[in-house]
Amino acid sequence: MKIKNTGQTYLVLLLLILATALLLRLWGLANMPFQHDEFSAIFRLAYDNLATLMREGVALRDSHPAGVQIFLYYWTKITGFDHFWMRLPFVLLGVGSIWLVYNAGRKLFGQSAGLMAAATMSVMQYFVYYSQMARPYIPGVFFNLLAFNLLLTIRGEDKTRFGLSHLVLAIGLSLAAWVHHFSAFQAGLVFLSGFFLVERKHIKGLMLTALLAFVLYLPCLGITLAQLRAGGIGDWLAKPDLSFIAGYFGYLANYSLLFAGVLIIPRFICNKQLPSAKKLWGERLLLTMLFLIPLILAWLYSVLRVPVLQYSTLIFGFPFLLIAFFSFGKDPSRKFVAASVLLILLSGSGSLWLGRKHVSSMQRQAFREAPHLAEAHSKQLGGDYTFVAISSTPAMFEFYMPENEGVKHYFFNMREPVWNLTLMLDTLQTEYLGLAWADYVPYEWVSSARAVYGEVVERRSWFNAEYYLLRRSDKPSIINGKERIVFGQDFIPSATIPGDEYALLFESDTLFVPSDDVVAVMMQCVAVDTVKQARLVLEFRNQHDGQPEVWRAGQVHRIILPGETFTLTAAWRFDSGEAALRKALFRTYIWNPGNEHFEVVNRCVWTATYEKELFGLFKPF
Question: Which of 64, 351, 385, 427 might form a disulfide with 256, Cβ 3.0–4.6 angstroms?
Fold first, then answer.
């Protein structure tokens, strides 16, 4: 049936956008295992009362305000830890955020701005991903957009007294502050934007709204101050550079040139066609600053003090930039809007499903996949198999371990000394080892296991995690196309270290290529006398006589008696530092502070390349 009425056309387009958004967020949701951030919330819910949850589960063990944690505390009492039902409220808030973007764009710039901004937001992996996580990001987006929409409502009201719109605005602002610190900052900017949006007669009502919002936020203020005193997250997050901006906007476009073109080309075609497109620059600038101010301040804080800038940091302000981008000033033709919306939905959905492989990446997460692989390999290999998992929180792997006791397994926390793994490996008799890691563990854990179980039978990669099936071998083998030995040397006869403090220096600044993501050094030795202090050093220097940019030393994990063999390893992930170390001077040598006597029988340096799946949820495949 042909739709003649322009209003009906826009209504159909809006319903199509919301239906697409809901479908993309619900598809496969029940089969998506929990991710690290969700586990961090789940493991902080086991408290008897709300007061203990606020103190132990939030103030002392979290970096976010208490809002989402309190909600999950009560919501999971109804749903349990069911993947679908636990996340459903966040999916609905994500879809609701799209309607709020549409409504704000429509009120400021017309139907075209609202519909095209909403369509874009509905198919961006940026918003689909965070809508499928039971974490504070999408709630923060929703409540900030709700507050902004209420400011627009107040602007259109004739009455100036404090009313229902002011009350809901105060609640929205306070809830935005209750869920995330950057969301709280964004809410403050949204509130300040009201002074530019509304007439002078509404200022008194806004001031009363701010007072009420602050009162509602007061119970959370103590938690916020305690968390701010605890510092940032710079122990694992690097300082930003210009590549952050390039990566961010690539991610916004689903790393798809087609999707980016569908967004950009019609925008500028229409901008030239409409004489009124140059109007309303005040509103455009205001919306743009709602995005740029958090970006600039987070960037400066990250460079000058502690790194905090991530894609998730900017999610609360990006919808405002999106509205400004599609602000034509006057609606183009109905056909142009309909065609643009359909192209956005088709190209965005296609790039999300096919290019970004979003559903399969979300459903294949290591905390579930690795235990299932361990179960399969245990059935295949029987008593000759042992499973080892390393992560920041071992209980995350344990959550999905099969209930039967058939898999012999060990869990390690990445913060404990790596020699705990080596000591355990000394006691193992099994021929095969399944080694899983998550949370970007130091590569020494992998190289230490491969010093004993050197043959790689299989390697699997998922987002931020890997699994190796290893077989016991004296020498490490390499994975064709994914690893390479860059320096190998057998010493025949053996190279004797007769008490020298430094020995067997090897250095080069031409070993590595851009595809090298990890470098590992291994040295096999035989003790002549008792050995307990020998170290294998790996370092990078930007200058031959300068201080090392990176210094790592692998050492013996127990007292080595005369005649015993032992292995030393050291490793480094190139993306762990700020310097471009692939072109720096690489050095490896023996440091023997105890002047001990031993022989080196084998030494090798190898590199590994990451599988694209390792960062596939945020970087290109």
Answer: 351
Residue whose pair of structure tokens reads 């290893």 in the numeric block: 470
Domain boundary among 301, 327, 361: 361
Among candidate residues 422, 392, 396, 424, the one with its CA nearest the CA of residue 408: 424
> In 401-531, at which residue ranges do the beta strands (DSSP E only) sit?
409-413, 432-438, 455-462, 465-471, 483-498, 502-508, 518-527
Residue environment code for 342-375, b if the CB has 16+ CB neighbours within 10 A, otherwise e: ebbbebbbbbbbebbbbbebbebbbbbbbbebbb
Query: How does DSSP assign 605-621, residue by residue?
Result: EEEE---GGGGTTTS--
Domain that holds residue 609: 482-621
Residue 367 near residue 34 (C-beta atoms within 8 A): yes
**Tens-digit pLDDT profile for residues 500-550:** 788 888 888 888 988 999 999 999 899 999 999 999 999 998 876 778 889
The whole-number average pLDDT for the span 174-182 is 95
In this structure, the answer to whether residues 247 and 296 fall within a common structural domain is: yes
* Cα distance between residue 8 and residue 338, in whole Å: 12
For residues 417 and 537, state if they share a domain.
Answer: no
Alpha carbons 76 and 78: distance in angstroms, whole number? 5
Q: Is 278 exposed, middle or buried (0-12, 13-18, 19+ CB in 10 A)?
A: exposed
Local structure of residue 353 (DSSP, 8 states): I
How many whole angstroms separate alpha carbon 270 and alpha carbon 49?
A: 57
Higher-confidence residue: 501 or 295?
295
How many domains is the chain partitioned into structurally?
3
Residue 492 within any structural domain of the chain: yes
Same domain? For 426 and 386 the reply is yes
- Render pLDDT for 420-430 as a digit per residue (tens, 0 to 9): 999 999 889 99
pTM as predicted: 0.91
Q: Are residues 282 and 170 in the same domain?
A: yes
Q: Report if residue 48 sits inside a domain.
A: no
- Res. 329: pLDDT tops 80: no
Residues 6 or more apart in contact with residue 61 via CB below 8 angstroms: 44
- 403 phi and psi, to 5 degrees? -70, -25
Q: Do both 353 and 379 map to the same domain?
A: no
- Domain boundary (326, 361, 396) is at 361
